Each structure stands twice: as structure tokens, then as C-alpha cells.
């Protein structure tokens, strides 16, 4: 039996028609559309439809999806009560989101069905309700009243409104919209692979998404964005960037938000979010500092190691400027990626075969059992 390379690097485990990463060219396509075009021209909701259905929506289809998402944003009573409990204890927000996801499954009568129409409906509930869950959790832990979901708003606007208690301005709303677009899917990253492995046992969308959340939370994956912000805060000012980075590298530490398994050139999502960061900083004078600092850190890492920033790097200052608390950065990533995870679960179930690889056994050879009393 051939042994796959460490970390399954460059191993192609099967087909997907959802997204494609060209690591050498630094390109990302959702269903054949360049993510740069989508970030410039489309909305997050158009991307959600694209990932689920394979084509961009017509105006009528988009209106229907927006309406459905807006109607479904209200969360069931039991999920709301669970969030309120979790907000009273020092829970990790990603763990709280995973528990709330389990509860959403309990309240969804279709949660155990793997038929395409039921799975699509569950996917819609997840995308609709994640903004409400995350915003409610944040407000409750700050001892504030939760804000009802606005009746006719985009995902980005609804989330910021529920988080803050007042609607964002159009520049803020668009900045978050673009951030959600670039996070929506990324081929077989660790969390999507996890979701597909779980789905391959014919477990539910909710089970797959709970597992994916766990994989996303780690600092080598989606959890990197929170560490990036902590690092920027620790560095503090642009002139301290270079010594700080060289110091970390001298200690053989990893710089969060840099490097990538697949991209050998710039991650296109990082380039898009760098532009959002610069535009946003111009719009908000107070933001300029974070953007300048991030640019200096990127320069220092390039000089020191020739590593490019990945999506998590500029996501951190953008989310910070939007007033999102640092420990909600990864849940916001999940608020978008849940669209991709659910698209992959549906694709997996359309042509399912159990994912069950082998391991190369390197433990002791067969040996005689020693009874407890005879062990020294
Ligand atoms: N800082 C310092 N050195 C690095 C970094 C980094 N961020 N990334 C890679 N390297 C070095 C690494 O030390 C190794 O050097 P050497 O060959 O001398 O030992 C070389 O580059 C190859 O690294 P690797 O660990 O074999 O690469 P990988 O493909 O296994 O890891 C990665 C990819 C993303 C886990 C890694 O680049 C990393 O740890 N980055 C920091 C965490 C991060 O930003 N994660 C977000 C990933 S992208 C978005 C997402 O999926 O959430």
C-alpha cells in the first residue's frame, strides 16, 4: 500500500464542482467564477446561491433567497435560551457556536434527513441563523438586550445591526459583505474535508457542520485570524513590526496569517482584503493605524522569509475596524464558510461513498498479553 505524503499534501481525494484553487497562479474560482470578480460585483447572498445551485441566481431567485434568509433569521426559543446560558459562563465562542449548531439541529424536523431538498432547507437555516446566534451571544455576554433581526437586510447588514444595535453605514456593510464572499469556500481545506468525512457516513448536515467548526477553530486554520489581531495589538506601532517579526522567527515561532499549503504565490483573498482594509481605513480615519501596521508586518515577513499573507491576515484589521470583538473573528469566518460546508455536504451525498482511508501501522509487533498482576 502506498503511503500518502505527510499532511496529505497534494493528494487529490476526489472530484468537486464547487470551488477550485490554482495555487501556482494564485487564483480561486467558485463554480468557475473568479473570486475577484465576485468580490467586486456580487453580494454574499449571490455567492451562497452559486455554491448551492451551481449558477448565479436570477433577480427573482436572489429576491427569494434574500426573503427566505431574512424570514429564517429568528432563532428557535431553545437555541436562544442555550446561547443566553453560554453567554453567562466563560465559554469559548467557537464552542458556543458548535453547541448552538447542535441545538438548531434538535429544533429542525428535517435534521436527520439526507434528501437534497431537506438538506438545502437545513443549509438555509444555518446560513440565516449564524448571524443571529453570534450577535445574540455577544450582546448577552455584555449584558445587553438582544436585537431582533432586521426584516429586509443583507446578511452583513443584519449581523452588524444585531451586534451593535444600530445599522452600519453602507461602507461598513460592503466591507463585511466582501469579507463573507472571500471566506465562503476553499476547496478541500481542513474543515471542509472534515465536513465531507462526517457526511460520508450519511450523518446529517448539522453533524458535519459541528465537526467542521472544530477543525476551523484551530490556529493553523480559521483560528489564525484571532491570533493575528493579538499579534498586531502586541506590536502596537509600525516601527516595532520588523524587530518583532525577526524576534519571533529567531525563536522558530510561526507568524499567524502567513504561509499556505496550496498557494505558492499571493492568496487572492488576502489581496482583496488588503484593498478592503485600505479603503476602509480611508473611510474611517481612526482605522488607518491598523492598516499601516498590518502593511508593515507583511513587508517585514516578506523580507525575512518570503512568506505571503493568507486570508486570515487582513481579515483581522478589517473585522477589528468593523467593531467585531477579536474572539468572534473565527465565528464570523464560520458565518460565511457554513455556506461552503453545506454545499460540500450536499455534493458528497449526491455521489456518496464512505471516506475510510488506511494508516501505516508503526507500533509494536504482535506480543503476548501480560495479566495485570504480572506487570512490573
Ligand atoms: N511562519 C513562519 N514560518 C512558516 C509559516 C509561518 N506562518 N508558514 C510556513 N512556514 C515555514 C515552515 O516553518 C516551514 O519551514 P521549514 O521547511 O524551514 O521547516 C515551511 O515554511 C513549510 O511549512 P509547513 O508547515 O510544512 O507548511 P504547511 O503547508 O504544512 O502549513 C500553514 C501551512 C498554513 C499551516 C502554515 O503556513 C502556518 O502555520 N501558517 C500560520 C497559520 C495560518 O496563518 N493559518 C491560516 C491558513 S490559511 C486560511 C485558513 O485556512 O484558515
Please describe what this structure looks like.
- This protein has helices at residues 35-41, 44-53, 59-72, 77-88, 93-106, 116-141, 155-164, 170-183, 190-199, 205-217, 224-235, 241-250, 268-283, 288-305, 311-321, 329-350; strands at 19-22, 27-30, 33-34.
- The radius of gyration is 22 Å and the shape is globular.
- It is mainly alpha-helical and 376 residues long.
- It folds into 2 domains: 26-169 and 188-215 and 338-350, Citrate Synthase, domain 1 (Orthogonal Bundle); 224-321, Cytochrome p450-Terp, domain 2 (Orthogonal Bundle).
- It is built from 16 helices and 3 strands.
- The longest helix is centred in the middle third of the chain and has 26 residues, at 116-141.
- Carboxymethyl coenzyme *A is lined by residues 7, 189, 220-222, 224, 254-261, 305, 307, 310-312.
- The site of carboxymethyl coenzyme *A (CMC) has 19 residues, from helix 15.
Amino acid at each position: 500500500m502506498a503511503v500518502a505524503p505527510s499532511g496529505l499534501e497534494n493528494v487529490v481525494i476526489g472530484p468537486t464542482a464547487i470551488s477550485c484553487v490554482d495555487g501556482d497562479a494564485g487564483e480561486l474560482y467558485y463554480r468557475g467564477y473568479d473570486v475577484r470578480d465576485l468580490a467586486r460585483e456580487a453580494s454574499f447572498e449571490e455567492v451562497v446561491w452559486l455554491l448551492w445551485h451551481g449558477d448565479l441566481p436570477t433577480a427573482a431567485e436572489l429576491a427569494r433567497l434574500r426573503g427566505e434568509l431574512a424570514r429564517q433569521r429568528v432563532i428557535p426559543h431553545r437555541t436562544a435560551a442555550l446561547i443566553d446560558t453560554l453567554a453567562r459562563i466563560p465559554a469559548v465562542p467557537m464552542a458556543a457556536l458548535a453547541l448552538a449548531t447542535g441545538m438548531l439541529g434538535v429544533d429542525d424536523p428535517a435534521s436527520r434527513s439526507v434528501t437534497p431538498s431537506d438538506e438545502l432547507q437545513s443549509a438555509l437555516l444555518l446560513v440565516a441563523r449564524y448571524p443571529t446566534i453570534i450577535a445574540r451571544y455577544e450582546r448577552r455576554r455584555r449584558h445587553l438586550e438582544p436585537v431582533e433581526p432586521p426584516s429586509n437586510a443583507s446578511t452583513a447588514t443584519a449581523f452588524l445591526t444585531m451586534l451593535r444595535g444600530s445599522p452600519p453605514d453602507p461602507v461598513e456593510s460592503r466591507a463585511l459583505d466582501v469579507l463573507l464572499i472571500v471566506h465562503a469556500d476553499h476547496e478541500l481545506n481542513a474543515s471542509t474535508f472534515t465536513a465531507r468525512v462526517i457526511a460520508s457516513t450519511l450523518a446529517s448536515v448539522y453533524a458535519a457542520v459541528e465537526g467542521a467548526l472544530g477543525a476551523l477553530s484551530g490556529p493553523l486554520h480559521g483560528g489564525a485570524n484571532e491570533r493575528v489581531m493579538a499579534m498586531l495589538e502586541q506590536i502596537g506601532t509600525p516601527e516595532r513590526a520588523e524587530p518583532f517579526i525577526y524576534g519571533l522567527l529567531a525563536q522558530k515561532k510561526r507568524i499567524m496569517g502567513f504561509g499556505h499549503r496550496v498557494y505558492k504565490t499571493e492568496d487572492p483573498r488576502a489581496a482583496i482584503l488588503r484593498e478592503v482594509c485600505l479603503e476602509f481605513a480611508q473611510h474611517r480615519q481612526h482605522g488607518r493605524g491598523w492598516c499601516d501596521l498590518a502593511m508593515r508586518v507583511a513587508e517585514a515577513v516578506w523580507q525575512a522569509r518570503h512568506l505571503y499573507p493568507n486570508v486570515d491576515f487582513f481579515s483581522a484589521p478589517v473585522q477589528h475596524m468593523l467593531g467585531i470583538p477579536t474572539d468572534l473573528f473565527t465565528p464570523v469566518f464560520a458565518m460565511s464558510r457554513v455556506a461552503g460546508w453545506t454545499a460540500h455536504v450536499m455534493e458528497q451525498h449526491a455521489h456518496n461513498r464512505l471516506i475510510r482511508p488506511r494508516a501505516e501501522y508503526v507500533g509494536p509487533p504482535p506480543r503476548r498479553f501480560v495479566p495485570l498482576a504480572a506487570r512490573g
